[in-house]
TrEMBL record:
It holds the Pfam family LTXXQ. This is Protein refolding chaperone Spy/CpxP family. It comes from Pseudomonas indica. The keyword Signal applies. Belongs to the CpxP/Spy family. Keywords: Periplasm, Signal. Residues 1-20 form the signal peptide. GO terms for molecular function: unfolded protein binding. It is found in: Periplasm. The keyword Signal applies. It comes from the Bacteria. One of its GO terms (cellular component) is outer membrane-bounded periplasmic space.
């Protein structure tokens, strides 16, 4: 059950990653980077030679798909006991940490400093988002009363 939920969460995050990529062509190695999309769906879109309007509509549809997947995932997560939710969160956090450590090991010392700063900024944004979501849930609960 946990593996299925983790796979579902991973699949649900893919459209968000695609939407976050800047516009432009792939880097010299085909991997995502400044102005690059990488391979996959973005390359398919490039081959379609979409107009700006079509591209905008595709992005909107991908965003709707991402939200739909998130809602479906959340419905199943809400049915899990608290212990299973905690175990899943811990496993995801451990996997994220392992991946970050592996990426950091590939970097030179000056790159590691920039990488560490980026992680700190990302964690701050994540904490800010969690605070906002808690506030929003509290506000909605007050409105419902």
């Amino acid at each position: 059950m946990r593996k299925t939920l983790i796979a579902l969460l991973f699949a649900a995050s893919l459209p968000a990653i695609a939407l976050a990529m800047p516009e432009g062509g792939p880097c010299h190695d085909g991997m995502p980077g400044p102005g690059g999309h990488g391979k996959g769906a973005a390359m398919m879109f490039k081959d379609l030679d979409l107009t700006k309007e079509q591209h905008r509509k595709f992005r909107k549809l991908m965003g709707e798909q991402m939200k739909s997947r998130h809602d479906i995932t959340q419905r199943y997560l809400d049915k899990l006991p608290a212990a299973d939710k905690k175990a899943m969160e811990d496993e995801i956090a451990a996997a994220r940490k392992k991946n970050q450590d592996a990426m950091r090991a590939l970097l030179k010392p000056e790159q590691q400093k920039a990488f560490d700063e980026g992680l700190k900024e990302m964690e701050a944004r994540r904490a800010e988002r969690a605070e906002f979501e808690a506030w929003k849930a509290e506000r909605d609960a007050k409105k419902a009363q």
